[in-house]
Amino acid sequence: MTPQAPDSRNPGIQSSTQSPGAQSPDSRALVMARIRRALADVPRAETPDAVPVERTYHRVHGDRTPSETVDLLAEHLADYRAIVHRTDAPALPVLIARLLADRGATSVALPPGLPDSWLSAVPDAVRRVPDTAELTPHDLDAVSSVVTACAVAIAETGTVVLDAAPDQGRRRITLVPDHHICVIRVPDQVVDSVPEGLERLDPARPLTWISGPSATSDIELDRVEGVHGPAPSK
């Protein structure tokens, strides 16, 4: 590699004769130098949250009642091939038991903070698999289903967000089993838009955003679903 004259378009940056795709050993130093120059006038103690950001974009697209917001969420979830069931709190245990039976589930993974009453109608023959540190991906691969709550659901995008709270468990229990039953409390946990959803979330928590099943179209643009995580959701 032979250093050349400084690039006139980028003063201080030298061009070279290195082959395309090759990375200069000084690339990291150059990037860090640019960052330091850009931050030269920023007080060292200043944090991103210390500077207010004007947010003039539309926070919600349209004016909806809470009921209409829930309907929109259900519509978008159905577009993603999730199966939406509506019920009330007293009937929830029976619904969960039926969904597990319809799936033929012989085992179900459960977060530690999931209400016991939710599984009260599930037969003892269905093995309960608690979410513990000892539970490996190999163990989860043999689990039929998983039941969790959620942190928030976003109607405009049909997104369900998990934040690893006690009633949701670790991320892996929702990514490995093929069948995920997610309980959304409506209307309390349903918001219209992503900006509204972000206001309810702690950015320091491990967030999982679910907008439909995992899918890829990498091979000949042929869409294949369920390649990284649960194929169906209910």
UniProtKB/TrEMBL annotation:
Amino acid composition bias (Polar residues), ranges on this chain: 1-26
InterPro entries registered for this protein in UniProt: FTHF_cligase-like_sf, LUD_dom, NagB/RpiA_transferase-like
Region Disordered, residue ranges: 1-28
One Pfam family named in its UniProt record: LUD_dom
LUD domain boundaries: 145-230
Protein name, per record: LUD domain-containing protein
Organism: Streptomyces antimycoticus
